[in-house]
Specification:
The protein is mostly beta strands. The chain is built from no helices and five strands.
Length: 95
């Protein structure tokens, strides 16, 4: 699920109708649903993450976005999750 909310819409640095958004993305993936046949224990290998972001859209066809991702992922055996976090910067254009 990705939620994006515009917070500022005005002329910014010469771009008319530029928009600054805040966003948050929630992710959950379970790669192996069910149980092992031999042991009956649950199959792990799932992850979840939350990713708050700030984006700048100078026009309707371009986006600059800064994300901070917090992620936890278990392995197939269901061991305690590994924790990952970090920044990501992206540039998107639509044509």
């Amino acid at each position: 699920m990705d939620i994006v909310q515009p917070v500022v819409k005005r002329t910014i640095a010469g771009w008319k109708d530029a928009v600054i958004n805040i966003a948050v993305r929630f992710e959950y993936v379970d790669w192996n649903k069910g149980q092992f046949i031999d042991t009956g224990s649950n199959i792990g290998d799932h992850l979840w993450s939350i990713m708050p972001a700030v984006s700048f859209r100078p026009n309707s066809q371009s986006v600059l976005r800064l994300n901070y991702r917090i992620q936890k992922q278990t392995d197939v055996l269901g061991n305690p999750p590994s924790n990952t976090a970090g920044f990501n910067f992206g540039l998107s254009t639509y044509f």
